[in-house]
Each structure stands twice: as C-alpha cells, then as structure tokens.
Design brief:
The chain contains 18 helices and 11 strands. The protein is α+β, with helices and mostly antiparallel strands. β4 and β5 form a beta hairpin. α5 runs antiparallel to α6, α7 runs parallel beside α9 and α8 runs antiparallel to α9.
C-alpha cells in the first residue's frame, strides 16, 4: 500500500517563517490561531490523513460507490465511519463563522489541512470539501433564514452540500442550461431538469444533502443573464429545522469514470423539486462564483496534493529499487546493483517534482492569506489589494497546479517503471485521480482565457501591475546580496519575459482576439513559473537568514539546493512560453476546420 506523511515541517516553515502568519493577529480569528494551536491542528490533521484516510484510498478506488434501484447510493467500506470522525472532529467548521457553530479560524489553515486530507484520499475529501464551498456561497448570498436553517448543520457535517451546474448540453457555457424554475405562490420554486457530473450528489454519509442548483426562471432572459441560483435540499426541512419529506431530487446514475471512484459522481434528476432562490433573480452566477472560486483554489490544492503523495512514494521506491550502477562507480558495493536514486535522470525527475511541490505549497499559503485579508480586514485598501490578488491568482493556481500536478504524478509513476503501471502499487491511481482536476471547475484552457481575457485588463490592469511591482521590488531589495544572486537574477529575467508577454498581448489581442486565445495557456504557465520563482526566492532568503542565525539543518540545506535547481533547470522555461506567445495565432488558426 502507498505511504504518506504530511509535510508538517514545510508547512511550519511557510506559516511561521516565510509568511509570518502571526503578523495577521489584528484580523479576526488569527489571534485564536496561535503557534501552539496551529501545531495541534496540523498534527491532528496529519494523524487523520495518515492513519484513517490513507488506508481507505485503495479501498475506495477498488469498490467505488454503489447505486441501488431506489436511487440510494452507498459509499465504499469505511467511508461512513471515516466521515463521522471528520465531522465530529470539527474539520468542516474549522474556518466557518462562530455564529453558525464554526471555529472562526483562518481559511489559510483550512487550505493547509485540505492538502493533507487530499493527498491521503482525494475522492473522500471531496465530500466535505464541496460542503465547505456550498457553505461559503450561502454565507455570502443566502438570506438570513436560509443561513439559519442550512449552515449550522453543514458546519457540523450533519448535512453535506453540492454544486449543480453542468448539464448534458452545457459545461463552461452555462447560458445554455435548460433546467427550469417555476415560482410558486408561497415564494418557493419548482425545479425541473437534469444535471450531470455532480460530485457527491448522492451518498450515505450524511442525513441530508443541500444542493445549490443553477436554473432559469420561466420568462427569464436567454443566456447567462437569465440564470438564477437555488437551494434544493434532498430532504425538505420543516420550519423548526427538523427533517420533513423527500424532495423531488434523485440520483439517476453514477458516472463510470477514470478515477476518484470513491466519490459518487452523479446524474441528478430534478422533478418538480422544491427550491428557494438564493440572492436575486437572474443573478445566480454571482452566488455560484463564490462557490466556484472556493472550489478552484481547492482544486489547485488537489493538483499539489496528488503531486506530493506521488513524489513521496517515488522517493521511497528510488531509494530501495536496485538497478544498474552509478555512472561514477558503484555506490552500494555490498549489493548486486545500486539503488536507482544514484542515477542523474531519476534525481532530475524527483527534484523537478519536489521543486514544484514546495513552490506550489507556498503559492497556496500566500493566496489563502490574501483571501483571509480580503474577507476579514477592516482596511478597505487592504481588502481591495487582497481581492485583486485572489482574482488574478485563482486561474493561475487552478490551471498550473493541476496541469503540473498531473504531469508529476505521471513522472512519479515513471520512476517506478513497470511496477508503477501495476495497480497493486498505487501509482497509477494517483495518475487517474489527478486527471480530473485539470477538467472540472472550468477546464484549464478556460482558466487561461479567464486570466488573459478578464483578469489582466480588469480595473485597468491594477492587479497584474501590483504583482509586477512586488516581484521587482523584492529583486531590487536583494539584488546586491551575493548569496541571493543565483536566485534574484533568474527571477528578474523571468519577470521580464512575463512583462514582455503581457505587453505583446495588450498590443496584439485587441485587433486580433485569436492572438489572446492562442497564447493564453502559455501565458498562464509563464505566469505560474514566475510565481513559483518568486516563492523560491522568498523561501531561500528566509532559509539563508535562518542558517546565518542558527546554523544549517538538513531541511534548510535541502531548501537551498532545491531552490537552485528550480532557478537553473525549470525557470528558464519562461523564455519558451514567451516565444510561443509572440508567434501569434497564424498557424494555429490557418487550417480550415474540415482539414483536421
């Protein structure tokens, strides 16, 4: 069975040293998350992940979920008991407001915990992850009575939540949806239609499931401007909060899919189901975007999480597997061959994955902290700057972390060679599970278009200019430091590539929009690489300072080496992305459609 150890030391380094989370004690909830509290939470999350969820990962993959003739769905062996531990442990309410029974702690902690749980068991973690996203949407756009009825039970995990967007004929283009809503005399609506690909749509983990459903009210405008959001419980809820009769919502089928078999991905049928409007009529995307943005950061964490667990198992195999001799002479002279970790190409593979994991983790923590500032700060300028950062980085994180996370799972499988292709060793499950993260919550090509088409020009480019200024200021501040030169110089070159790419798109995309479309994915990846480079430069500076103050440790020394590897072997990719962007859309769009 694959193994997993939560990266507690790396998380502690980021929270305590790189981002100095205690500096945020002026924000609500942060003063309650002191260092000892954080350590206790993270250690318990590690135990939950390693001891409870990891052993169920293979079980869930082999058994999958079972739909019964009456539409009920049962989850794999052990999932129900594990979910009870998650709910009773208060993990769903870690960052939820105290007024609804949550602990009110920073969302940054929740995202960190989510990485641990997802590395251990991605399919399982989606049940409570979606619930937290649905809770976030209700908190922002729900009516007071809706919040009072639904949120407390979702915070405790007694009820779970979903998001229902996709239909057979529409995925990204939600303006094409056909699910309809008919207003009733009592102010409720009757919802009718079919939704597909609904993760955790039906299961036996909680006593009720609260569906957030996009539908079109009769007579509403066509397209996206006529879409509304509704809360539709699986079981109706009485005025006193008790459960009533079954609503008109059923699971018509479980999708047969490539991975995440332990999560019930359902076809959901709504047949005059009773629902209530969330927010305003025809403004449903505003409410759903809250959940989608929460989910997109969560999906980015999935990419990182699968990369991390795949990396850990590749390292163990590389240290144990005997094959060939080192090019510089035998290292394990008492054995018939050397472990494959002596070979440069194996080390290149492992360092590439590790350098990504540590930079991606830093970007998640950095962005999660910005999210906490955006939601908790009383300073309007701080909130605006943090919100700008979130809007800009969300598509980058979702797209790049899931693209690279999947590629890293494949690379880790490659380290195992033929044994990685055999199901019993677990590496191929990481590949299959990681694959979905590139697709849902907006396929990554859509994330790239969102970045280039909406996020860059938003507010006159305020967010991207702030990012450029921050990275440039860091490079200037440390430019004269000889120890930082191997990091600052490559970062500055990469930033220059990103700035050139941004200018090229601004000058060439207005007249020919296909230039933006053709270069969007390369731009997103270029942006991600610069973000990783900035994270590495920040981490290295802190590591150097800690070594100067207290002496070297294996962890800090490894951090410096991995950072140099990133700067030397990975960050130069920005020049390639720039070249592709500047080539424009000519050959991309030249062939007629029928020639493909």
């Amino acid at each position: 069975m694959p193994s997993y150890k939560a990266p507690l030391e790396d998380v502690g380094f980021l929270l305590n040293d790189v981002f100095q989370i205690d500096r945020y004690d002026n924000l609500p909830g942060f003063s309650d998350a002191s260092a000892d509290v954080r350590d206790a939470i993270l250690n318990e999350a590690a135990k939950l992940s390693e001891q409870v969820l990891l052993p169920l990962n293979r079980v869930g993959d082999k058994e999958g979920c079972t739909r019964h003739d009456d539409g009920r769905v049962t989850t794999p062996t052990g999932f129900k008991e594990a979910y009870k531990q998650v709910a009773e442990g208060g993990w769903l309410g870690l960052s939820a407001p105290e007024e609804f029974g949550g602990q009110g702690l920073p969302s940054t902690l929740s995202h960190t915990v989510a990485e641990f749980l997802t590395s251990a068991n991605m399919a399982f973690s989606m049940y409570h992850g979606l619930t937290m996203g649905a809770t976030a949407a209700l908190l922002v756009h729900g009516r007071p009575e809706q919040k009072a009825i639904f949120i407390p039970k979702m915070v405790t995990g007694e009820w779970t939540g979903t998001m229902n967007l996709t239909e057979p004929q529409c995925g990204t283009d939600l303006g094409l949806l056909r699910t309809k809503a008919i207003k009733q005399a009592d102010g409720s609506y009757k919802i009718t239609g079919t939704k597909i690909f609904i993760s955790a749509g039906e299961h036996d983990l909680s006593e009720n499931i609260i569906h957030l459903v996009l539908a079109r009210i009769e007579g509403a405008p066509a397209g996206i401007k006529g879409v509304s959001l509704f809360v539709v419980p699986k079981i109706l809820v009485n005025a006193d909060g008790s459960l009533g009769g079954r609503n008109g919502v059923t699971c018509g089928a479980i999708e047969h899919k490539m991975g995440i078999h332990g999560n019930a991905t359902c076809v959901m049928n709504y047949d005059d189901a009773t629902g209530w409007l969330i927010g305003e009529e025809n403004k449903g995307m505003q409410g759903m975007f809250v959940m989608m943005n929460e989910a997109r950061l969560g999906v980015a964490v999935q990419g990182l999480a699968q990369s991390e667990v795949a990396y850990q198992n590749a390292v163990i195999y590389a240290q144990e597997r005997l094959q060939g001799r080192s090019l510089t002479g035998a290292k394990a002279t008492d054995k018939p061959a050397d472990p494959i970790i002596v070979h440069p190409d194996i080390r290149r593979t492992l360092l590439t994955i590790r350098a990504f994991n540590e930079a991606a983790r830093a970007m998640v923590v950095w962005t999660a902290l910005k999210g906490d500032v955006a939601h908790r700060s009383e300073d309007a300028k701080e909130r605006q700057a943090a919100d700008d950062h979130m809007g800009l980085m969300t598509p980058v994180l979702k797209g790049v972390l899931t693209d690279v996370g999947f590629a890293n799972a494949v690379s880790a499988q490659q380290v195992w060679g033929g044994h990685g292709y055999i199901a019993d060793n677990g590496m191929e499950q990481f590949v299959r599970d990681a694959r979905i993260a590139m697709i849902y919550e907006g396929a990554n090509g859509i994330q790239a278009l969102d970045l280039v088409g909406r996020k860059l020009p938003r507010d006159g480019g305020r967010a991207v200019m702030a990012f450029f200024a921050e990275v440039a200021a860091f490079a200037k501040q440390h430019g004269a430091d000889a120890a930082m030169q191997p990091f600052v110089a490559p970062l500055s070159r990469a930033l220059g590539d990103l700035q050139k790419a941004t200018t090229w798109l601004m000058m060439n995309a207005m007249a020919q929009p296909d230039n933006a479309g053709a270069g969007a994915t390369d731009y997103m990846k270029l942006f991600g690489m610069v973000g990783f480079g900035y994270m590495w430069a920040k981490m290295v500076k802190v590591a150097q300072d800690k070594i100067a103050a207290s002496g070297a440790t294996p962890y800090l020394t490894s951090k410096l080496t991995t950072g140099r590897f990133f700067m030397e072997r990975m960050l130069p990719e920005t020049a390639l992305h720039l070249t592709r962007i500047e080539s424009g859309c000519g050959t991309v769009m030249e062939l007629p459609a029928e020639a493909f």
